[in-house]
Amino acid sequence: MSLLVVATYPVSGGPVLSGPVHSDAGVLYVGGSPVPASQGTSAMLGAALAVSDYLGTPAPYALIAGDIGRGDGTRAVYARLADVAAEVCPSVVAFHYMQPVMALMRQAVCDLGETFPDALLVADAGGMYAAKAAGVAGRFELMTPDVGEVGFLADPEATHPAYVSHYLFGTEGFDPPGLVRLAAQSDGSARVLLVKGKTDHISLLGDIVGTVDAPDVPALEAIGGTGDTITGLAAGFMAAGFPTVDAAMCASRANRHAGHAMVATPAMRAADLVAVLPDVFSEYLCGWSGVCPVCP
Amino acid sequence: MLFKRSKKREVPGDALGIFLFDEVSSAIRAEKVLMAEECEVALVAPPHHLRAGCDLAVSVARVEYVGAARVLADAGVVVREWVDDAEGTAEVCDLVTTEDFGEWLMIRSGNMKITVRRENGVIVNTSGGGCPDIPYLNIELVGKTIWEAPRPKELGYTLCGLMLDRAFCEARELLGGESR
């Protein structure tokens, strides 16, 4: 069981990096090269690594390239995806911060479907935007939209959250169950959604199957990367063999408890959250999931 | 929580055409160049069949096409195509909300958020979004004040960057930045 993360990192012209993820003295490395700490991919990878470190499962494997929004790194990782996937034989493939290019995503999903038909696909951020806009959302196992993004999944005309209709936007009257249902009906949704918000909603095929609202840590919304850590946690749990809905529930709970444990303020970093995850797992994960590396 | 929508211009849809670009940053630059020439423009989503993913177009009154195209060419803005019909375009989401965190104020524009310290305007966080310039903008902006930091749309390349720019401008307005 292994997790392959396909994404970019925020360095202009940064080379393609691929390899297992590890951390040393708070710095994240991919294939031996350091990755800048920021919201986005490093937050996601940090959380996924915390899961594998705790459960003793294989470390996540990353395929990333430098991209600050021009799409060059995104194109570079798509070009390498088939070769790297053949090397890793992933059970879970997560697409994260990438330029949302519909044609490239469509081709990648098609190719992965032929070579690794059993791999579970996860998408967040630009990977999710591309998958939905390209009409291949239904091929995905899990997506992790936030309040502003679930309306995008539900809007069949939108190809980017910037174009979401006002009535679908996550403000007053926000209706996650209704939006999740709309998204499923219009083929804009993965099989499972984890909608991040004041209350997190987990849905399966358009129906809400679980909610998580405690502990309530409002400051997390302001901290860049704390949505990325949820995605990393969920993908990490899936790669460890958790059923997807259970993985989403555990990810939501772990993220909130980590926010509570770090006494989150809007001025903190996603790395602060990642740092307390081992303690959160140690205290709660066995009770949530029945999975415990130290229990008999 | 505050809700705000920008004023819409009063140009009939059937009198507009659109410039298409290969990069969002080109559309943003085109808007800036054309507005400097007092040309009435708007950033819009291209019609569905002309979209590739992260797209942004500039709508202009059809009667102004020739002059606008010359302005863009003189400024070195590369236009992919002119479409003589704006039917099927969509407005960029213009809903802005705020969240009060006491010492800090979070401003949300579309899928993007920026959080600033009230007393000094220091950007303490940016969050949301999914395009690759967003982590880059986070690194470039956090720690600077909203008056000294460059505007996100001067640094970014994508629609997420554009939405962050709107939140950034709203933060300046709310904290009285223009007068500082």
What can you tell me about this protein's structure?
- The complex is a heterodimer of chains A (296) and B (180).
- With 296 residues, chain A is of the alpha/beta class.
- Chain A has one domain: UDP-N-acetylmuramoyl-L-alanine:D-glutamate ligase, CATH 3.40.1190.
- Chain A is built from nine helices and eleven strands.
- An eleven-stranded mixed beta sheet of chain A has the order 4-3-2-5-1-6-7-8-9-10-11, with helices on both faces.
- Chain A starts with a strand and ends in a 7-residue tail after the last helix.
- Chain B has two domains: 79 residues, UreE, C-terminal domain (Alpha-Beta Plaits), CATH 3.30.70; 84 residues, no CATH class.
- In chain B, strand 6 and strand 7 form a beta hairpin.
- The longest helix of chain B is centred in the C-terminal third of the chain and has 16 residues.
- The two termini of chain B are 25 Å apart.
- The relative contact order of chain B is 0.16.
- The model of chain B has no long low-confidence stretch (mean pLDDT 86).
- At the A-B interface, helix 4 and helix 5 of A face strand 5, strand 6, strand 7, strand 8 and strand 9 of B.
Reconstruct the topology from this structure.
The complex is a heterodimer of chains A (296) and B (180).
Chain A: E1 3-9, E2 17-24, E3 27-30, E4 33-35, H1 41-55, E5 61-66, H2 72-88, E6 92-95, H3 102-115, E7 120-123, H4 125-133, E8 142-143, H5 147-154, H6 176-185, E9 192-195, E10 200-204, E11 207-212, H7 226-239, H8 244-261, H9 270-289
Parallel strand pairs in A: 1-5, 1-6, 6-7, 7-8, 8-9
Antiparallel strand pairs in A: 2-3, 2-5, 3-4, 9-10, 10-11
Helix pairs in contact in A: 1-7, 1-9, 2-3, 3-4, 5-6, 7-8, 8-9
Chain B: E1 16-20, H1 24-36, E2 41-45, E3 57-61, H2 65-75, E4 81-83, E5 90-91, E6 96-101, E7 104-109, E8 112-117, E9 123-128, H3 133-141, H4 152-155, H5 159-174
Antiparallel strand pairs in B: 1-3, 1-4, 2-3, 2-5, 6-7, 7-8, 8-9
